[in-house]
Amino acid sequence: MSDESGEPLTSNVRPATSALVTVRIIKSFPYRNVKNHILSPVNLQETTPKQLVEQVRTIINTTGGLRPYRNVEYDTLKIYTKAHGSKSMNLIINFENDDDWVLQRPGLEIDRSLKELGVENETELSLFKWDDYVAFKANPEEKW
Predict the structure, then answer these.
(1) Taxonomically, which superkingdom (predicted)?
(2) Contact present, 132 and 29 (Cβ < 8 Å)
């Protein structure tokens, strides 16, 4: 794929075996506590959502700058936006596409690769606690 100028799209520049993925670590929905962490390279053809969640949990527990994010039990991985796609109007989380874009949550563990699930280079993923998401979705009130 390429854009109108003939240049390849950034989502197609890197191979699926060496993709760049941004993980949005969400500590609090109401207070909009989010920290982006860029992972590269990620082998989308072999990595499952469960493996990626475990990898990011390890990063959170071993990286000094992520110390404030250690007190949440992250159990859910959801696509926030794909490269060159439209973003959600909500800056903290994408409420749409729960059936298709939630890749892992309690009671749902998909044993397929990230590539098979539609993740490509430069996809943004959200990592959060499912119960917090359900509560915020029911009452999306932001606090300051």
Answers:
(1) Eukaryota
(2) yes
Question: Does a structural domain hold residue 107?
Answer: yes
How many domains, the chain? 1
Q: Specify if 58 maps to a domain.
A: yes
- Percent of the chain whose predicted confidence (pLDDT) is above 70: 85
Confirm whether 3 is domain-assigned.
no
Q: What is the pTM of this model?
A: 0.87
Q: What is the CA radius of gyration of the chain?
A: 15
Burial degree of 43 (CB within 10 A; 0-12, 13-18, 19+): middle
pLDDT in tens, 60-83: 999 999 999 999 999 999 999 887
| pLDDT surpassing 70 at residue 45 | yes
CB distance 26 to 33 below 8 Å: yes
Q: What residues does 127 pair with on adjacent strands?
A: 25, 77
Residue 79 lies in a domain: yes
CATH number, domain with residue 125: 3.10.20.90
